[in-house]
Design a protein that fits this description.
Rna Polymerase Sigma Factor, Chain: A; Rossmann fold; 375 residues; eight-stranded mixed β-sheet; two-stranded parallel sheet; 17% strand; alpha/beta
Length: 375
């Protein structure tokens, strides 16, 4: 693995101060609005080497490198840096926290200027198109009219699709990883269980818990459910088996299995870094999203000139390969230049963060072809 990009710093862009406004799909307005973002590498003279990387549900703007005084790298650090898939010696990479998030971009935990208190559930509902529209504002601020590529997995993949559908003239290529054009009933069902766990926690208080106890138990259970869907049967068996031990029994009905300890650990650590209301808002946006706009995805892609790389993972049962193939078929029907690869991984949905070597090969070759073809 090549040397990483070193110390990075999260930046913030605030706009739409009164009398300006940021209009949402709901018809409501946010004023002002802040977006947290990080950049890696250098923008070339003709501004043709910019790549927008989009994070999944629990991600943030910190995609690569290290923050000063911390030793945890960004969530896609193995893929971004000199000589890596998103080679920062060649490309200028941008990653921002989504609208409704809790890591610097305006969301339900932000201060409502009308009241001086956190928005809570007074925060307006947001959509995937709202998130992408905000990213477009950020790119305008950075002076980037057109992206060499836009890339993301899971919820990030939904945002990639939205870029293709709503702003095709700003995208030269796209990397769509382990996602769906619209959620299946099963995917919606898993998210609803997580939302119900949060809202059933007495400490949720209809979203007005700021300044008091947060709904930690509910958010922890929501994350536990999520982690079950991120792994595969094979990866769980290999990682835990039916081994017992560890921290002992978490409750009287626990059998002390290692997998139980793992889920409790993941749930509790998530509470320390994520806001429960953001979880509710973002999962709702994910479930509502429909790249087809209720119609045919091939129709939505008609006239698209961007080159597309679609990746899926054989053991991913949260976003199974058939959903990626639906995107591929829509591209082919619409006459779009598309390449597809199903990676033979046992990691389940987590594979898009873990199968670094194979993804690096596929992504780096794809980007080189697109970049050189544009010259």
């Amino acid at each position: 693995m090549s040397k990483g990009i070193g110390i990075v710093e999260t930046q913030y862009y605030t706009f739409a101060a009164p009398p300006g406004r940021f209009l949402l799909d709901s018809g409501e307005k946010l004023v002002p609005i802040t977006v947290a973002y990080e950049t890696y590498g250098d923008l070339n003279e003709d501004r043709s080497n910019a790549i927008l990387v989009l994070h999944a549900l629990s991600g943030d703007a910190h995609a690569a490198g290290l923050h000063k005084g911390q030793n945890k790298p960004g969530w896609w650090d193995d893929m971004i840096g000199p000589g890596r898939a998103f080679d920062t010696d060649k490309y200028f990479v941008v990653c921002s926290n989504v609208l409704g998030g809790c890591k610097g971009t305006t969301g339900p935990s932000s201060i409502n200027p009308s009241t001086g208190r956190p928005f809570g559930t007074d925060f307006p509902l947001v959509t995937i198109p709202d998130m992408v529209r905000l990213q477009g504002q950020l790119l305008d601020h950075l002076g980037i009219d057109r992206l060499l590529s836009v890339a993301g997995g899971s919820m990030g993949g939904q945002q990639v699709l939205e870029w293709l559908v709503s702003y095709p003239y700003r995208v030269q290529s796209a990397i769509v990883i382990a996602t769906a054009a619209r959620h299946s009933p099963q995917q919606i069902a898993f998210n609803e269980v997580g939302r119900q766990a949060i809202m059933a926690d007495p400490d949720w208080q209809n979203g007005r818990y700021y300044g008091g106890e947060s709904p930690a138990k509910g958010l922890s259970v929501a994350r536990m459910v999520g982690h079950i869907t991120y792994m595969s049967d094979i990866s769980m068996a290999e990682k835990f088996g039916r081994r017992t031990g560890g921290n002992g029994k978490a409750h009287p009905f626990s059998n002390g299995f290692e997998v139980e300890d793992y889920l409790h650990y993941r749930g509790l650590s998530f509470v320390d870094r994520f806001d429960a209301n953001s979880y509710l808002y973002i999962t709702r946006a994910i479930d509502e999203y429909d790249a087809t706009r209720g119609g045919n995805l091939a129709d939505a892609f008609k006239g698209l000139k961007a080159k597309i790389l679609v990746l899926s993972f054989k053991s991913d049962w949260l976003y199974p390969s058939y959903q990626s193939l639906e995107i591929v078929r829509a591209c082919k029907t619409a006459g779009v230049d598309v390449t597809y690869c199903e990676i033979n991984s046992t990691y389940g949905h987590d594979a898009f963060l873990l199968e670094v070597d194979e993804e690096t090969t596929l992504v780096s070759h794809f980007l080189i072809k697109v970049f050189e073809g544009a010259r």
